[in-house]
Sequence to fold (68 residues):
Amino acid sequence: MKCSYCGNELRRGAGLMYIFRTGKINYYCSNQCYQYDIVLHRAVKGARKAAAAVAAQVKEGKERKEKK
Fold:
């Protein structure tokens, strides 16, 4: 399953499920994604790109530490 807001992969049994009156189900990886999407109605714009950039920076930082 993927987060309906940011697209991150969810583990089984983790995250938050929001069910609309129409029967549509949205899954969220964190309360922050839920708040941004449902409560604040923020557009995703660059959320996926930003999350990918942060993940790349973290990965790069770990690789640098391993080389030293």
Notes: Strands lie at 16-19, 25-28.
